[in-house]
Amino acid sequence: MVLDNLGSSLRGSLDKLRGKSRLSEEDVAEIVKEIQRSLIQADVDIALVQELSSSIEERALNEEPPGGTSARDHVLRIVYEELVALVGESTDLPLESQTILLAGLQGSGKTTTAAKMAWWFSKKGLRPAVIQTDTFRPGAYDQAKQMCERAEVDFYGDPDEEDPVEIARKGLEETADADIRIVDTSGRSGLNETLIEELKSIEELVAPDRNLLVLDAAIGQGAKDQAKAFGDAVGIDGVVITKLDGTAKGGGALAAVDQTDSTIAFLGTGEEVADIERFEPNGFISRLLGMGDLKQLAERVERAMSEQEAEDEDWDPEDMMKGEFTLKDMRRQMDAMNKMGPLSQVLDMIPGLGGGLMDQLPDDAMDVTQERMQSFKVIMDSMSEEELENPRSIGKTRIERISRGSGKPEETVRELLEQHKMMSRMMKQFQGMGDSDMQRMMKQ
Ligand code: GDP
What we know:
This protein is α/β, with parallel strands linked by helices. It is built from 21 helices and 8 strands. It has helices at 4-15, 25-41, 46-62, 71-87, 110-123, 140-151, 164-174, 193-206, 223-234, 251-260, 281-288, 294-311, 317-322, 327-339, 343-348, 356-360, 365-381, 385-389, 396-406, 410-431, 435-443; strands spanning 98-103, 128-132, 154-156, 180-184, 210-216, 238-242, 263-268, 276-278. It has an 8-stranded mixed sheet with strand order 3-2-4-1-5-6-7-8, with helices on both faces. α9 (223-234) links the parallel β5 and β6 (238-242). α14 (327-339) packs across α17. The longest helix has 22 residues, at 410-431. The radius of gyration is 25 Å and the shape is flat. The structure holds guanosine-5'-diphosphate. Guanosine-5'-diphosphate binds next to α5. This is Signal recognition particle 54 kDa protein.
């Protein structure tokens, strides 16, 4: 993802500053070089890189660190502030009635983004609807309809109508009850007159409150031209960067933001409806620098918990904190974890665990963990009520039976029981903790 290597390479240089109270010119030069290298690798525009490096250099050498601040913290703060300034504020999107138009080239992820954004607004308690006007790409209608069904949001489209402006007009009428109307438009494989003219006509009719440009993270330097063309045609208020879960770096999108004088609205991190994040500059840069992103994490946990509670009504997480931690509790926790998204993304948000820990793990370690969770679930499905409530009663013969029943090796059944013991011990520790201990832990 954007500037992915920055966190680890920068931490290396910063660690060399440990114990120092003053920064030398060489120290600053080394750090600036690391930052430049990462930014250029991430496809960030050279002019932007130059601008950023000179501000960091100047501030690091001239600003007096506040009393008691180490050289490391001083420079980290400056880098953090300058990077936050580079990525800019997040696009202003009030949680109230509005119409949003999505533009972008074919394949950039518009249709997917429309459904994801609708899902995101629905989780904020609003009623969104997606209007699909893409008559150019075969299959766009079905894809949008299916995704909106999965997102459980209203949808309007008409596979028999050829005029996108007419679809937009009808769509606005049909979705009059919605709070948020997201209008998806056609893309083309490249920029051309027809695309721009069609977009202008839809924009004129819809008169959206916000125009968002959807960009694939892999766009690189081409972002500038695209941004200019779309910006000249309809004006761009914000950018959505998609496919940040892949290998692409996304730095090019920053040039688009700069070019259109706009900001980043959302980040797309996968193909499912829930794989979307509202862009938050502070959290984003904190995560990048390995400082964690508590806000995103808290939001995901909260969402997963409320979904879980809605699913099994008689379950109260408080009970788990008080009494015995059973395998059933463990299964619920695993379900909640799954709802939070890929484990690697979740771990990245935990302060102190982010970056640093991820760098030490082999790339596939997280997949294995996901796979293991899946096996554990299959095994638990083969257990009796009594075994789930009282895992200590599971001896050798029962392990054999469970293994046969689930089709999983005995070894994995034992691993599950071990994992449960470990989690159970951890829960006991939490139970013995006061609120202030918890808060202290979260602040670290
Ligand atoms: P459109 O032509 O702009 O409407 O693009 P689509 O929404 O059809 O997306 C093109 C492809 O990119 C589809 O296969 C999507 O599943 C995929 N896609 C979109 N957003 C993301 C994302 O954030 N991550 C990943 N991995 N794939 C995405």
